[in-house]
Design goal:
Strand content of chain A: 5-15%
Largest sheet of chain A: 3 strands, antiparallel
Radius of gyration of chain A: 20 Å
Helix content of chain A: 55-70%
Number of helices of chain A: 6
Strand content of chain B: under 5%
Radius of gyration of chain B: 31 Å
Oligomer: heterodimer
Chain lengths: 127, 325
């Protein structure tokens, strides 16, 4: 039982590490169409991202100070909302991050695949 | 009256700089209202929807951490190792020296045994607190001014920074104190005769033989340290020579102290410790320090030499060889 619980905790912490940067990629990608905090949260959770509101809202402001997002207040609706939009620079960074994500995905898949796919390991020692 | 949402927002914004507060306040309220609205649309009563929306948003302190930015720690992983090494050095080298000096000054001040122990204890506490506080404060400032490990090292890491784990080899950092201690003892031995007090603390009669003999042994310790340093390995010969030197130094001191010939009788007569007999106290302390020091020294070097013989790597100073895990 204790073993199971520690395994759960270990898995949770590794998953958290793995997901750490995904909020940035996802936010910068989604916000190419301007949107506000809650709408982004809805979009991301519908898309299957495990992003929590209390990390997402500060993240949006951090990306703004880094110049990857711009914001403006939209007062057309009854409720004024702060709309964020990905900048050119933010789009470039998101593209680079997505490329890296794809590369990692391929790399992990290759590692996990059958060993016959790895000429380096099969052509190794004759013994 | 403050609403639940007011209380939540105020708590989340407490640490946010004044300039950004109004903007975040407005944005956060809009986001909470959106969440509540979505829940009400899903069929929840308004009060429950508000409570659940805030519960989902979670601990406002965490939100405040996110908004506040900046490190939420005093010393980060980048500088922690250097900070810990500095503290270990300060507590194992600087603190004992300060305490010994304070106690010696107190003894020379003809204090009673009580105040001397009091001085030792209070020096440990106050000096220890100062050492820990100021070094930690300096590192916290370094952390916040963006000083990196490479800056403290004075350049990027190179292979020359690797410690030498050759069993028993003495590093330059170890050589300095091993040479410095005997020199300091010689200086103290000579100076006590002339400067520290009007009456020398140690028996001047021993200048005929024993004090010069001890100075010669201490000079031998210096030569021995340099010899071990240049040899770069510790063998049983090193163990033997070290043991001989330790015995040559400790045995006369123990013998002199146990026959009441270590301290100057005139000096002891000038000490008033009330009911306590200063001579037996001082003699006991000297015998204990000399005996424990000698045994410690002999055993430590013997263990090192044995490790060297078996080829077990030794810990280099300032590193932890086998990790913390």
């Amino acid at each position: 039982m204790v073993f199971g619980m520690t395994m759960d905790a270990t898995l949770a912490s590794h998953l958290q590490e793995l997901r750490r940067g995904t909020g940035v990629v996802a936010s910068l990608t989604v916000q190419r169409t301007p949107g506000y905090g809650y709408s982004l949260l809805e979009t991301l959770s519908a898309a299957g991202f495990e992003v929590e509101a209390n990390t997402l809202y500060p993240l949006l402001r951090r990306l703004e100070t880094q110049g990857l997002l711009t914001s403006s207040w939209n007062t057309d609706d009854a409720r004024p909302r702060k709309f964020y939009r990905t900048t050119e620079q933010g789009d470039a960074i998101a593209a680079a991050l997505r490329t890296e994500w794809t590369r990692l995905d391929h790399a992990v898949t290759d590692l996990d695949g059958p060993s016959a796919d790895h000429p380096s390991t099969t052509s190794g020692s004759p013994a | 009256m403050t609403t639940l949402i007011d209380r939540y927002v105020f708590t989340a914004l407490r640490r946010v700089p004044e300039k950004q507060r109004a903007d975040i306040d407005r944005e956060l309220r809009a986001a909470i209202d959106d969440a509540v609205e979505a829940r009400v649309a899903g069929g929840e009563p308004h009060q429950a929807a508000t409570e659940n929306a805030l519960l989902e948003l979670g601990d406002p302190e965490r939100l405040a951490d996110g908004y506040a930015g900046g490190p939420r720690y005093l010393i980060g992983p980048e500088l922690f190792g250097i900070w810990r090494r500095l503290l270990v050095f300060l507590f194992s080298v600087v603190l004992p020296i300060v305490v010994v000096v304070a106690v010696v000054l107190k003894v020379l001040d003809d204090a009673a045994i009580g105040p001397i122990i009091g001085t030792a204890v209070s020096t440990v506490i106050t000096t220890g607190a100062h050492l820990a506080f100021w070094s930690t404060a300096i590192f916290a400032v370094l952390e916040r001014t963006g000083v990196a490990r490479t800056d403290l090292r004075g350049g990027p890491w190179t292979l020359d920074h690797l410690p030498r784990y050759e069993p028993g080899s003495l590093t330059a950092g170890q050589l300095v104190p091993t040479v410095l201690w005997p020199v300091l003892l010689i200086v103290a031995l000579i100076l006590q005769q002339f400067t520290f007090s009007t009456v020398p603390a140690l028996d001047p009669a021993n200048w005929s033989f024993w004090w010069p003999f001890l100075i010669a042994v201490l000079l031998g310790e210096c030569a021995y340290a340099v010899w071990v340093f240049r040899r770069a390995t510790w063998t049983h010969a090193v163990t033997a020579i070290n043991a001989v030197l330790a015995v040559l130094f400790a045995a006369p001191i123990i013998w002199l102290a146990s026959t009441d010939r270590f301290f100057n009788p005139e000096f002891v007569a000038g000490i008033d410790w009330g009911s306590a007999d200063p001579l037996s106290w001082l003699g006991g302390i000297v015998i204990a320090i000399a005996a424990v020091g000698a045994i410690w020294d002999i055993v430590e070097v013997a263990v090192r030499a044995e490790r060297a013989r078996r080829g077990i790597p030794a810990e280099a100073p300032g590193t932890v060889l086998r990790g913390c895990a």
